[in-house]
Records
---
Amino acid sequence: MKIIFTLNGKKVEAETTAQMTLLELLRQNFKLTAAKEGCGKGECGACTVFLNGSPINSCLKLAATLNENDSITTVEGLEEDKLMQRIRQSFTDEGAVQCGFCIPGMTLATHHLLSKNPKPSLTDIKTALAGNICRCTGYRKIEAAVKNAADKGE
């Protein structure tokens, strides 16, 4: 079946099946590989993308349910975004990137948080990142990176 939606600011058409997830569609049809399948159950956050401005687990969203009014934004679609540039720099400055597998989801969760709450508390940061699992850092450096990105926004 053919679907039409907006992807990273551009109207696109794609062929999908009833069973294909949005994650599979993004990776296979559009070669956007930042979002990854970590668990396939919506628990790890590695597949996070924005649907109409809100973070979702793309491994759980069936591509066939997208419609012409839907807008998907991936981390690749935020290359020129000033907030995302600040977030990426903060993650680098704080040494919050190790294997990198979780980072696209972490940075999208951070982007969503700072877009809504530019001065988050540590509790706000922990809550915003709760749906994203990192197996390498222990979260302290990631939390510091989010705080750093918020502080640089002043």
Note: The chain has a mean pLDDT of 95.
---
Amino acid sequence: MSDAPDLFAAAGNGTGDAGATLPPLAVRMRPQTLAEVRGQGDILKPGSPLRRLVEGASGTAGSLSAILWGPPGTGKTTLAHLVARASGREFVELSAVTAGVKDVRAVMEGAARARDLYGRQTVLFLDEIHRFTKAQQDALLPGVENRLVILVAATTENPSFSVISPLLSRSMLITLTALSDDEIGEVIEAAVADERGLGGAYAVEPDAAAYVIRVAGGDARRALTTLEAAAGVADDGVAVGEDRPDALPITLADVERAVAHAAVRYDRAGDQHYDVASALIKSMRGSDVDAALHYLARMLEAGEDPRFIARRIVISASEDVGMGDPTALQTAVAAMHAVAQIGMPEARIILAQAVVHNALAPKSNAAYLGINEAIADIRSGKGGVVPAHLRGSSYAGAERIGGGVGYVYAHDEPEAVAAQQYLPDDLHGRTDYYRPTDRGFEARLQERWTWLKGRLGR
């Protein structure tokens, strides 16, 4: 084992013959100090546990293990390297995709030697810890518990479901968030100007930078990868024998070619954000599945947060499909949870399934209209006291004031239907909030509700 490697010794533009041997732009631009880290201001503020860990604070705060949970490209690997740099710590990196219990034990043995022989603490960075089995995570516990190693584990999945409880209780859980558009813009500007990056050899046009930001979706690594690819496209566009400008322009067309699809004319913060979201909902409501998939694709390609899309689909499943197909809500809710756990790009498949279900399902807004009408009556002052026989009867004094007296237990009646008054007096016999349609599953409910109302004397 050795000190954290210096990945930033190489300089250059990262394109052309000289740059062919350089690490990727995202690696070259990895922050070397906390001052260079973009985003994550809340968890890195002075005095915070993570900052004290990065700065190598003395005592317990400087040696706690940490689990970093957040979407890709938010700085999990960067923060692990910064922790390793503090106070000359040893640094070992494992990936849960390829490592096993044997590898973990080897790290622990090496960490014990480094501590006993050289007085050096070891930082173990474990990427994708959610891929470790329970037995593999158990192997980490002794080293973490006695602080033989500082574990810095990274995951894109909720640790509450993917990390064993004993490991969670011995670690700080730190939630990272996607970078804002402004922060991604700062990442791009720094990469263009910095000698570790493109060294001022390129000039990114505003619409090209805006598109890189949209494509990135809060992921700094994706932004830098796209920028590097676009710089290569711009280089290819310089004709043989043509003088290359000191700052070669990177245009929107260069970025489009780099990501192999056209830019989506869509502003996530502007009117089109609402226009396209509205079009998605109305296309599902109108049962045009092709149009619904089109607008879903537009939102995804524009970098829209898939969790926002999932929430809109859940609302549509209740508001527009409702009891026409009750399973649409089940699909939508399952999709919302799956999207939160999986993320892009696979989340597109889950969202598409939910959109197709909503679009093709029989439609009913009867439940939606029913609750709206009930709320309107409440707000207008309707709805008297609860009928005495429906009031609670289990508390002291309830019987003395008639609570529960005369109540008929429905399960004791034929068909488990008790013919008694349920609505307050001022609404009894005059209210019909739920009016089921004759579409889909709700056609069966319409027949049953008509029968029930007859039994209830409604």
Note: Residues 1-20 have pLDDT under 50 and may be disordered.
---
Amino acid sequence: MSAQSFVHLHCHSHYSLLDGASTIDRLVDRAVELGMNSLAITDHGNLHGALEFYQTAKAAKLNPIIGYEAYIAPGSRFQKDAGNQKDASYHLTLLARDRTGFNNLLQLATKAYLEGFYFKPRIDRDLLEQYGEGIIVLSGCLSSEFSRALIGSSREQRESLAQARDVAGWFQKRFGDRYFIEIQDNGLDVQRQVTDVALELSRELGIPPVATCDCHYVNREDAEAQDILLCVNTGRFRSDASRMRMDSSEFYLKSPTEMHAAFTDLDRDFVAAAVNRSQEIANSVSIELDLGKRHFPGFDVPGGLSAADELRRLCLEGLRERYRNVPKRWTEETADGGERVLHPQVMDRLERELGVINTLGFASYFLIVWDFVRYAREVDIPAAARGSGVGALVA
């Protein structure tokens, strides 16, 4: 490992809507230009850019580290009585270490929207207990529960330390060597104040620190564009002195050299270890996603039939219903008591379509859409389907 190693483990793209000013291709290109071999994406509350980032990073021969900056509820995700957005959630940096971790991030991000949404999509500690395998946790930025506990007056410091110690202790117990104290230096005095106390707890509890940059844009000169995005986000004018702002132009994709030069008040050997640790964490990450095949959900068919058999059965029922009132009946009885199809061209078309659908593995897909439409009609919800498949006789 180089003496000047560093990997961005806390990095926002434009999928951090109206907060990140970096497109994924620009982030990846700049990381390659800076000689990095890995890069993480940690957008606010979502994994919307995960696959685009994975493919773009792989194409550039970067190791993609998929994560997100989660919103975590102070208590239960089901408790929704906070008076404002700030009190409703903290920030927490989560990174997938392997495929299991990636699958668990998907579960967390989904349940955050479906179960915990309150101002923001939120998870809680119960979900982290359930879906924590394969996930690396960094304590977070200034908006994390750990850091907020350390932003207090000296009169409150003893109580604040105890609270931060409890937070770090819980994550250390749950995630072990996959939990790290996150330290940042984007030129803000409050970051330096938090870092000083955070490092005390890091030494006391034996939790290693890791340096991150909280990147929101690619280059320093992009700070103004990101500031304008924040104004659009919050509905405020740039001239408003009380509005939300970053108060620094150092939230860009810094080079390893710049990161090793940061944290000027700390011992240089200690800084080197914290910055290099980002590379060590990156080296522990390996996520291989199979993007070459479709991953449709399965359709549970009663009676042990396959999806293809069930689709054919429903199609035959549908054809009989469709042809019920036409002049020429659908079938007629044969002399031996059997049944003969009176519309062979229709059956030929049906069998041809079913053959294509089954060859491509779309039988479950058609059944799922059929189930949506069936239910909608049963409860008098207007329903219609769109797309090329609608022109099929099967549909």
Note: The chain has a mean pLDDT of 92.
---
Amino acid sequence: MPVLTWLTRDNDLKLAQNAPYRLLEEVPELSAGETATENILIQGDNLDALKALLPYYAGQVKCIYIDPPYNTRSAFEHYDDNLEHSQWLAMIFPRLELLRELLAEDGSIWVSIDDNEGHYLKVIMDEVFGRRNFITSICWEKVYTLKNTAKHFSEMHDFLLIYGKNIDTLKVNPLPRGEKQNASFKNPDNDPRGPWLDSAVHARNFYSKGTYTVVSPSGKEFNPPPGRYWSVSEDNFKALDADNRIWWGKSGKNAPRKKTFLTEVKAGVVPGTIWFYAEAGQNAEAKNEIKELFADNTDIFITPKPERLLQRIIQIATKPGDLVLDSFLGSGTTAAVAHKMGRRFIGIEMGEHAVTHCAPRLKKVIEGEQGGISKSVNWQSGGGYRFYRLGDAIFDEYGRINRAITFRTLAAHVWFCETLTPLTTTTLPEGGGKTPLLGIHNGVAYYLLFNGILGDKRPDGGNVLTGKLLEILPSHNGPKVIYGETSRLSSERLRRENITFRQIPYDIKAR
């Protein structure tokens, strides 16, 4: 498969792998609402933030939406949108790699972009997500008036590139049916089954059983039009006619048409690939939403997306309770809409407007603000989020484990490195509590002896694997991987006990 090449590509391909695992430190004074919430707002570089999330959320995110800098060769107040082309590619590639790891097998990623980098982004995403996992490109009408001051053409649209983690397991939802879709259904013959829509019974595709003659109630004979065939066999046609599912017109003299009842159609409609502003919002609407939210703030974010656009994306890509992630959160639209729609969210924003825009906006949502989509989804109030900043790296410059690391933090890191799955409450052994057993994955039990988890920090105690300690570890009849400071067991004893010992920190740092 063809790939893009740029000046720093070889180094950029290693950025995600080499990014340090860093701590996430909560800032309680910037958190809001219910303390038990799973919603997260992170301030910090999104590459490091995404890496920090991997041990907890790998494979868990149902929908990722990002609105990265478009590289439009113009300066924006809240971020630099004037990167050189190679710098833009260097920025987006490693972040897409980490986003793919966070995406669920049946999930999808949606990326807003325009023509400045859109075609290069398509090639990059083909490489990261796989060309076969490309779903479609949506054209969104972001403005509805022509700009006569434009040099050549008045640009009126953006694109949404959509990929699945695995197109074979991808799940998307139809859009809700509206009055426009239902208006075509009528009931001119007062059929007790209700309104229906008629459609042709013939098609261009050759069908060997579709060349018969039919007779209308008026006695008039009909054959398929030239070059066409009935799409059902004669027996099936007669059955449909007997069930009053063939419409011959009010006088009974018209060519036959098949009746489809409104009660039989899908609950929704398949989304199209052209989204007009009337159905998905537009830029002016988004700016008005921000102005209403921050009427007392002169520092207004000037490139937001409308809530209706995110509502449509989240409707298609998720169900209530699913996890939505935006690592270029901007003014907080994705998180606000996800919350109003009953989804969990993770938002990442590097700039200071994580504090000046995102947090205040989400607080207003929790309090029940009625802008944007609030009325259409009957949003009232409630919920919460926790605000985090990036803390220290797990390893210091000498490769040693940071003293600030807790058992739970290192456990999540070790579990992810071994299993490539997040450490969750369901992963932990039944009963939880103070136990070095992290869980069992594919028949292998994983243990971590660290930070006095067994209440004994002596050299021959809880952080060192000894024969005495092995006797009190939770038992497992199968392979065991044990992390600790050192092992006092012989290689023969380890083999006999089916134990793979990994030394902290060296075997953690190397993985």
Note: The chain has three domains: 9-172+269-392, 179-264, 407-509.
